[in-house]
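Dear support,

I submitted the protein below through the web form. The confirmation email said the job was done, but the results page showed an empty box. After a refresh the structure appeared. I'm attaching both so you can tell me whether what I see now is the final result or a partial one.
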Amino acid sequence: MPETAAEGREARVPFQLIEVDGPSMVPTLNPGDWMLVQYGARVRPGAVVILRHPFQQDLLVVKRAVERRDDGWWVLGDNPYSPGGDSTVYGAVPDELVLATVRARFRPRTGGQGEGQRSVVARLSWAFSALRPVLSDRSASRRLRAR
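What the results page shows now:
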């Protein structure tokens, strides 16, 4: 997710659309999905958040805030098979690097052969599932504490 998409926006607008780039949050968010994010929203355990990468602050990443610790938020990707950075690599993320909370995702229709020939049922199914709220996964917090 390129930084230029949200550079400086958190101070001016409460909501923004950002495209997902990468598989670390599959199945919650897929590459190509669009997220509606809210800047300045309260972060709770289980929330999906946008943050500045602690070691490369010009890079924005999306992760699940699993647990609040003394030194910041412990964040993890939802996809255990995706290599990538999360708190297992860089530790807890300081509060000032957590920028926004993801409120909803929009999954665009995928093009392809026969796209114009899709049935009415298939189109209605896509329309029903395309826009979804991104809900907190409170079980993620419990799983981490149980380890």
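Response: this is the final, complete result; the empty box was a page-load delay. Helices lie at 87-90, 120-130, 138-146.
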